[in-house]
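>> received
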Amino acid sequence: MLTLEKEKTSALDYSNLNTSIQETFTAIDRFEWQAVDEILQMREQQLYLQAGYKNFEEYCQRELYAWGGYRRINQLLGAKKVIDAVGELGGHIKNERQARPLLRLVKEPEKLKQAVAIALKDNPSPGESDFAAAANIVVPQLPRKKQSTQEPMVPKIQEPVVPESAKVTVSQQSHPRYGDSGVIEASAPNHWQQIVTFADGEKLLINNTDLDASSVPFPRERTYPAEYTEAIAAIEERHKQELERLSQELRIGLQAEVSATAEAQVQEQIQSLQNLYKQQKEQNIQLQQRLDEMEGLRKLEIENQQLQQRIQELEHAVQQRPQQQWENTMTQQATKALNKQVKQALEKTIDLRSLAQEPPKENAQECLRLMGMALKNLASAMNNTQALEAAAIILGSEPTPSAIAYRAEQLEMLPQAVSDIRRVLSQLGCTWQDYWAVAQEYEVIKQDYWAELTTQETELITALQNASSQPDTIGLGSIVAHADPYRTLYVERGEVVEDLGDEVIVAWDCWKEQSKKTDRYFREELRFWQPE
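>> returned
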């Protein structure tokens, strides 16, 4: 048997054995990563609660103790974070040992990817030392503080001297044996716990902090070895630096927010001032226009006074020297008679009340408008109140220049209004909606264009209005809108394209550019469409 075993061993060569060993470790790493995925499912879905474990740590310590317990699981989860953070480069990290030196860069993904790239640059298949060197290049690690030779950082704690039959009492209220007294009869297994024997014979391992016995000299705080103390100090230093960095970022963020708020307030104040300036500018323009108008009126008044004064001078000159003024053409009595005749003719021209009551037969409104505007211009030129009143009577407005001018602008629209309305009425199938779409633009001069229409045209308009006021049944070809005011189709226009009895199919104008152009409705869901 020994000979056969030796022959079998000698048959193996280095390359085959080395390849088998590498494949075995690769399989171990692969199954280890697979276990990490399953551990994440256990933690995230809290499936350990089904077995009665209070938390994930307790599950790891109980069920996975043979594979390193909670500490090893944390290492594997940290390696998983590194691989997820590095992205596509994670395939070059084979196991947890290679990811361990990169874990301190996981909060800075860009630096983490840079470290992996540096490791791959020097070695296409880097190991743990390559990743550690690359991480140190990207973010140098602070050197550990050397322990002082004069005084150790963590002095060694001597084993507590436990007096015989040291009596203690459980002082922690959360402990099940709170208030019970016991005796320490055995040596402590460590520096932070004691074995207490109670009166009923039960022995429990209790923390020093849960016991109250001033006569028992044992430490109440947990101590750590020197290497753990250095690691804890380094972690605290990193946490302190991280807190300082976060505080600085928070201050910068708050300053930026305050600056943005202040800038927004300044912009709002600037906008308000600009609006106020614009209003003041408009008011100044209006005041300037008013001042210009007043200045023009003042100049007209001065000119009027000058003209009146000149007229008085001329009248006085005529009375003093009638022979010289008329150059022996006519006598003063002839002048007075001529003035009387001109005045009578002017009074007859201005008194147009009879013309307003009985207008001309051909294009009466246009004639009246032209006459009214002529009288208005005459009244303005001669400052004659009678001419202004006559123009107001003819045009049918107040006897003021502004009212007469506004009325004249209205009457200018009259020929176009009559033409548009007659064009609509002459169309076949004319409806009240068609007429109203045009007539509402000339509603202010309705009485004027109504007087220009023939009796047949006015009767047709009245018939269309009566037909539109009567309720009708929605049917094929009806122009409708939705009857529900809370629907968007309430203000849209549609046409009934198919009658299905109780229901109809409507094609909406607003859906012409969409794939769905029609929809089906009951008649009571619709109403006749009215233009806004």
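>> The two ends are 110 Å apart (CA to CA).
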